[in-house]
Every structure is written in structure tokens, then in C-alpha cells.
Design a protein that fits this description.
This protein is mainly alpha-helical and 228 residues long. It has one domain. It contains nine helices and no strands. The longest helix is centred in the first third of the chain and has 30 residues. This is FAR-17a/AIG1-like protein.
Length: 228
């Protein structure tokens, strides 16, 4: 006796051929991924050419790590957009996390770091603007307007929390051992002291959770109508 398994409604919907609008956004995702990768490669190349590239420092920045995550998410998202009418729920959760990281990168840079005196090597300005402003803006806008976004449950907030917690723990331990912190607001020896560091950590963590919750809420808009 044999049994026949049938795909679920969600799986069937996901695997329908992509629409022209999805393909357009697939191209936009590829362009954004290539631009972000070009910015990172340019920064590394400049530092190598000037003898200023320290890998363990460069790759310790949240901006760089979250930008690499965005490159992967955009690349995978482009492939999905070319093939399917809508994205799988798991990918959408990871994409939501990338949006949260990019948003906090943009806000922290423009509120806390822009205008501070540069320390060490100073390279071209455009890669920093791409990674801190234009890629985050693209990810935010694309999350709102791109077709094919899956509906996320509220528990997916925790998907966005894991990476920042690991990064923060590693950064603080490394800072204590090596006396180097990638961002001045994490330095406990600053005039405001450890209390200021704790306040920044709590505020930024709450901001990431808030952005993730907002992104999930956007994914759920019209959910009842779609279910019907």
C-alpha cells in the first residue's frame, strides 16, 4: 500500500513561478548585494595598499559583519525572487533580522558616530556611506514594498536577537582582554564609565527588538484577508 503526500498550501504558494515584479526586485537585490560587497572590498583593498589592514579589527565591527549578512541575504533573496512567487518563512525571518541589523547600523552611525574625529586610517568616503546609509535604506524600503514576503509569527523576534548578543558578548570579552573596542560608546574607561556603556547596550538592544517587532507587524498586515 502506498501513500501520496501532498504539499501544504503554503508550500504550493511558495513554489509558484515568479512574477515580473518579483524578478525586478530580484535584480534590485543583486545590485544591492554587489554594491555592498564592492564597498567592503574597496575598504579592505585600501587598507591593504596602505599597510593598515588588521583583519581581526576590521571584521570585528558590527557594521562589517551585518553588511556581510546583508550581502548573503540579498543574494539568496535574489535567487528566490527569480524562481518563486513568495519567500519561505525561514528566509523571511532571516531577512527581517538583516533589516533590524541594518537599521540599527544606520541609526547608531548617524546619531552617535558621524562627525567624530577619525582614528587611524582614513579611506574613501563612499564605502562607508553605502554600508551605513544606502544599503540599510534599501533593505528597509524593500521590506515594506517588495512582493512575496511571508507572514511571520511574533516569536520570530528571537531570531533577530541571537547574533547581536553573540557579537556583544565577544566584543566585551575581547575588549577586557585586549583593551580594544570597535566603538567608543562601548569603552568602560570613557569619562561616563561602565554605567554609560550599560545604558547604550540596553538602549540599542531595545531598539533592535523594536525594529524586529515593527518588521514582523508589517509582515502581518492584511494577514486575515490573505488567509481568506
Amino acid at each position: 500500500m502506498t501513500t501520496t503526500s501532498y504539499p501544504t498550501r503554503a508550500a504550493t504558494r511558495t513554489r509558484r513561478p515568479a512574477t515580473p515584479a518579483r524578478m525586478v526586485f530580484g535584480l534590485l537585490r543583486l545590485a544591492a548585494a554587489a554594491t555592498a560587497l564592492a564597498a567592503i572590498i574597496t575598504q579592505i583593498s585600501e587598507r591593504v595598499a596602505n599597510g593598515a589592514f588588521v583583519p581581526e579589527w576590521y571584521f570585528s565591527y558590527f557594521t562589517v559583519q551585518s553588511s556581510l549578512i546583508s550581502v548573503v541575504v540579498l543574494g539568496v533573496g535574489a535567487v528566490l525572487a527569480f524562481r518563486w512567487r513568495s519567500d519561505p518563512e525561514l528566509f523571511t525571518a532571516v531577512r527581517m533580522s538583516a533589516v533590524a541589523y541594518a537599521t540599527v547600523t544606520c541609526v547608531v552611525y548617524n546619531v552617535l558616530l558621524r562627525g567624530l574625529p577619525d582614528q587611524g586610517f582614513v579611506g574613501l568616503a563612499w564605502p562607508g556611506e553605502v554600508l551605513h546609509v544606502w544599503i540599510p535604506v534599501f533593505l528597509i524600503v524593500e521590506w515594506v514594498v517588495a512582493p512575496g514576503r511571508a507572514v511571520l509569527g511574533w516569536e520570530r523576534i528571537w531570531t533577530a536577537v541571537g547574533f547581536p548578543l553573540v557579537w556583544l558578548g565577544f566584543t566585551l570579552v575581547r575588549g577586557v582582554l585586549g583593551r580594544w573596542y570597535p566603538y567608543p560608546f562601548l569603552e568602560p574607561d570613557a569619562p561616563a564609565g561602565p554605567v554609560s556603556v550599560l545604558a547604550y547596550i540596553v538602549a540599542i538592544s531595545a531598539f533592535i527588538v523594536g525594529v524586529a517587532a515593527l518588521a514582523i507587524g508589517i509582515s502581518r498586515v492584511g494577514m486575515r484577508n490573505r488567509a481568506g
